[in-house]
């Protein structure tokens, strides 16, 4: 299965790294490595994340990496990372539904 990133998710990762790195650059690097490892595991195990509770749609799932929700859409052959949002922020369905 192929894993792709939406432009929104890509930008949100950059923002998260900058935020974490302002306090602790090593922590930012460690978080990024953990994020990429978990996301790449979705290629083999696309259903390993839970359904996003706010939507309860089988094809919209999430994994948790530290305090961040990594929300993704999956199809038969693609996992698209749709959004990477700090868990303390309000949910925005527009970020993850086409």
Descriptive report:
The chain is of the alpha+beta class and 98 residues long. It is 35% helix and 29% strand. The protein is built from 2 helices and 5 strands. The chain has a 5-stranded mixed β-sheet with strand order 1-5-4-3-2. Strand 4 and strand 5 form a beta hairpin. Helix 1 runs antiparallel to helix 2. 24% of the residues are buried. The mean pLDDT is 95.
**Rg to the nearest angstrom?**
13 Å
Alpha carbon gap, first and last residue = 20 Å
Provide mean pLDDT, rounded.
Answer: 95
CATH secondary-structure class = Alpha Beta
Taking the sheet with the most strands, its summary is: 5 strands, mixed
Unreliable stretches (pLDDT < 50, length at least 5) are: none
Order of strands across the main sheet = 1-5-4-3-2
Beta strand %: 25-35%
Entry keywords:
5 strands; globular; 98 residues; 2 helices; single chain; YaeB-like fold; alpha+beta
Summarize the structure.
With 98 residues, this protein is of the alpha+beta class. It has two helices and five strands, in the order E-H-H-E-E-E-E.
Task: Please give the structural blueprint.
Layout: E1 2-5, H1 7-23, H2 25-41, E2 50-51, E3 60-65, E4 68-74, E5 78-86
Parallel strand pairs: 1-5
Antiparallel strand pairs: 2-3, 3-4, 4-5
Helix pairs in contact: 1-2
